[in-house]
C-alpha cells in the first residue's frame, strides 16, 4: 500500500478527508486568471492605484461559496466584486537576453525585470 496525500486508500479507492469548504473566486486581471481566497497575496500587472488604496476587481468569472455552491458567470458573475488592498510595487525575476551577429564581432547583452502590483485579497462579495 502507498501513502496518498489526498486521503487513505481502501480497496483501491481513495477516501478523502472532509474539509470545510472555503469561499474562493476566479478573477481575471489583464490577460491572466487567478484563483483567490480571502487573505491571499497575488502579483498582477499594472493597477491604477496608489500603495495602500483599496482596489475593486470586478471581472469575477466564478465564485464558490462555503456551502459548496458554485456560481459561474457568462462570462462575468453579475454583482460580485473581489476587494483587494494594494500592498506594494514589486519586480519579477531578471531575464537576460543576448543579441549576437555572426562574423561581425558584435553582441549586446541586456536584462529586463517586469514590474508587478502586489495585492492582498480582503473580501469576496456577491
Characterize the structure shown.
The protein is mostly beta strands. It has one domain (20-125). It contains no helices and 12 strands. The protein has strands at 7-10, 13-16, 24-29, 32-37, 41-44, 54-57, 60-64, 70-72, 81-91, 95-101, 106-112, 115-125. The chain has a 4-stranded antiparallel sheet with strand order 4-3-7-8, with no helix packed on it. A hairpin with a 5-residue loop joins strand 7 (60-64) and strand 8 (70-72).
Short description:
This protein is mainly β and 126 residues long. It has one domain.
Largest sheet: 4 strands, antiparallel
Strands in their spatial order, largest beta sheet: 4-3-7-8
Task: Indicate the multimeric state.
Answer: single chain
N-end to C-end Cα span: 44 Å
Query: How many discrete structural domains?
Result: 1
Query: For the CA atoms, what is the radius of gyration?
Result: 21 Å
As residue ranges, the low-confidence spans are 13-18
* DSSP E strands, number: 12
Shape: elongated
Order of helices and strands: EEEEEEEEEEEE
Q: Roughly what percent helix?
A: under 10%
Structural class assignment: mainly beta
Strand % is over 45%
Number of helices: 0
- How confident overall, as mean pLDDT? 85
Task: Note the topology.
Layout: E1 7-10, E2 13-16, E3 24-29, E4 32-37, E5 41-44, E6 54-57, E7 60-64, E8 70-72, E9 81-91, E10 95-101, E11 106-112, E12 115-125
Antiparallel strand pairs: 1-2, 3-4, 3-7, 5-12, 6-9, 7-8, 9-12, 10-11
Amino acid at each position: 500500500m502507498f501513502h496518498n496525500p489526498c486521503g487513505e486508500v481502501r480497496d483501491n479507492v481513495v477516501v478523502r478527508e472532509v474539509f470545510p469548504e472555503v469561499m474562493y473566486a476566479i478573477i481575471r486581471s489583464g490577460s491572466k486568471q487567478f484563483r483567490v481566497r480571502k487573505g491571499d497575496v497575488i502579483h498582477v500587472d499594472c493597477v491604477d492605484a496608489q500603495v495602500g488604496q483599496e482596489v475593486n476587481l470586478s471581472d469575477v468569472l466564478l465564485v464558490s461559496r462555503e456551502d459548496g455552491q458554485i456560481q459561474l458567470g457568462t462570462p462575468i458573475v453579475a454583482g460580485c466584486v473581489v476587494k483587494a488592498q494594494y500592498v506594494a510595487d514589486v519586480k519579477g525575476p531578471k531575464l537576460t537576453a543576448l543579441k549576437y551577429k555572426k562574423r561581425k564581432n558584435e553582441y549586446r547583452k541586456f536584462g529586463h525585470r517586469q514590474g508587478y502590483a502586489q495585492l492582498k485579497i480582503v473580501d469576496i462579495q456577491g
